[in-house]
Amino acid sequence: MKLREIAHSRTGDKGNTSNISVIAYDPANYAFLEKHVTAKRVKDFFSDIVEGDVVRYELPKIGALNFVMYKALGGGVTRTLALDIHGKSLSSALMNLDIPDLK
Amino acid sequence: MKKLRIGSGAGYSGDRIEPAAELAAKGDIQYLCFECLAERTIAIAQQAKLEDPNAGYDALLTARMEAVLGICKQKNIKIITNMGAANPAAGALKIKEIAQKMGIKGLKIAAVSGDDVLEIIKKQDLIIEETGEKLSTIQDKMVSANAYLGAEPIVEALRNGANVVITGRISDPALFVAPIIHEFGWSMDDWTRLGKATVMGHLLECAGQVTGGYYADPGFKDVPGLGRLGFPIAEIQKDGSFIITKVPEAGGNVTLDTCKEQLVYEIHDPAAYITPDVVADFSGVEFSLVEKDKVAVTGGAGRQKTEFLKVSVGYVDSYIGEGQISYAGPGAANRGQLALDIVAERLKLMGVQYQEIRFDLIGLNSLHGAALSSGHEPYEVRARVAGRTQNMKEAVRIGNEVETLYTNGPAGGAGAWKSAREVVAIVSALIPRNLVKANVHYEVI
Given Cys at both, which of A2, B82, B241, B331 links B37, Cβ 3.0 to 4.6 Å? Predict the structure, then answer.
């Protein structure tokens, strides 16, 4: 199953750091997300793009995870050579992450 | 005042104008706040000011003020904005001129300055957050340095009866926190309430993003009426609790999910969102749907502010040269790749000097690189080469090598385009708070 089936996401940027939320449509699936969408999986998924660490923060009250990805934006919006200067498309890419089917 | 209604009139410098006018006319609001200053916008504004001392405020300031000033004066809605960018004083004069043209009388416009700390930091040699190096390493290339101010000078301006407050670099939430402090008489060290108000400011500061903008994904996340997306309103109680809503007839929607996405937008540690006014804690925030397009927000908190202010330092970093050309039909991606290979060879043959370069096939792999993009065959691609150089002359040569593919490259190259530009980049540093002094001055008609 793809992450997109049970979660939605938005990307933001500050300098050369990108952050991606992963939010359960149904808060009941938050624990499942917490188990399967780890910082390591996100770091591996974006291995071509993210040069720094990926840190995960948890927001159980709204059923959301926040991934902060360092050195992810080619120097940041003011100097990057990338077409997506803010990295705004990264959340859409992450929705393609494979996760186990819900039982 | 029992409750306060604040509207968000813009989420960035180039944002739509009519949703703000709609809020002023139909939003039953007392304040209309426009957030128009991003990391890159202030550097651009500083450059404009260097060329013309009367320039450097937001490009849409005139259009925005013409759209809302009359109705706001009539309904006694106060306007707060950071559209002053690099030149709040000139922005205030411009607003005065617009008001006079519109025949508005009895208007007090406050300009907040003091965020420009370029001369101060030249003596401080602060540490660059991004690199750990000292600012002196870019001293010769610095064009601007602006500290993020807090809510205090806006509160002062409102206490002195300002109808319009225009600032330069100020924290985004402060634009929304200041009127609450002023109206409810909160103290500047009421950390919990300031934290709650900061949650509100953060939800509103990107305008349409909490009403369904930057959200829609057909079949998964459908949003009605995006063509006439309404901007949000926060209705705040004296204890700091609030709801997010919009004008009923406006497009878009306010739901639990639009609020959740915006809460996490552009934050790092949810328990420590640092602003000049407070270290806000978003980790306990909860949303509940009161009725359609009306979401109640509870659980925000805050701790004592830090002793530092963030400074955005603009400096001439490099030059970027870029060229693009399209290919379509069978084998488009292969011809696009051949085009990129030819440019790579040409740049080498001609001895073009660059520090960093990218070769992209737009439509195939330009956003996420080879691994995530593999296994697709598009009908059309756009070959793109972008390189960083140390001077304009070299930057120009990169685009030229893409353009010459027209007659020297693969079959069917279409619509070549090129550009070369100077890059004013931004780095951040922390400055001791006591070195920064805000000033407020007034224009009255």
Answer: B82
Selected residues 4-43 of chain A with any CB under 8 Å from a CB in chain B: 4, 8-10, 12-17, 19, 21, 23, 25
**Which of A59, A81, A93 shows the shortest C-beta gap to B264?**
A59
Q: 3-class SS at B366? A: coil
Locus of tokens 């009605």: B224
Question: Roughly how many angstroms between the first and final C-alpha of chain A, as a whole number?
Answer: 11
State the nearest Cα–Cα gap between B426 and chain A, in angstroms: 6
- Residue B185 CB neighbours (<10 A): 9
ipTM of the complex: 0.97
pTM exceeds 0.80 for this model: yes
Quick check: B266 and A13 CB within 8 A?
yes
Alpha-helical regions (H) of B27-151 = 39-51, 61-74, 88-101, 118-121
Residue A36 sits in a domain whose CATH number is: 3.30.70
pLDDT in tens, B236-292: 999 899 999 999 999 999 999 999 999 999 999 999 999 999 999 999 999 999 999
Residue A87 at interface with chain B, using a CB cutoff of 8 Å: no
| Cα nearest neighbour of B427 on chain A | A15
Same domain, B334 and B365: yes
Per-residue pLDDT tens over the stretch B196-212: 999 999 999 999 999 99
Distances (CA, A) of B210 to B59, B67, B274, B286: 24, 23, 21, 15
Containing structural domain, residue B84: 3-114+149-306
For residue A97, which residues of chain B lie inside 8 Å, CB to CB? none
State pLDDT tens for residues B332-369.
Answer: 999 999 999 999 999 999 999 999 999 999 999 999 99
